Amino acid sequence: MALHTIDVDKASFDEVVIEGSRKAPVVVDFWAPWCGPCRALTPILEKLAAEYDGRFVLAKVNSDENPELSARYGVRGIPNVKAFAQGELVDEFSGAVPESGVRAFLDRLVPSPADELRDEAAAVYAQTRDADRALEILSRAEALDQSNEDIRIDRAELLTDAGRRTQANQVLAALKPLTQMGARVNALKAKLDLAEGAADAPGVDDLQKRIAANENDLEARLQLAHAHAAAKRYREALEQLLEIVGRDRAFGEDAGRKTMLKVFELLGNTGDLVSEFRKKLARTMN
Question: Is 189 inside any structural domain?
Answer without folding.
Answer: no
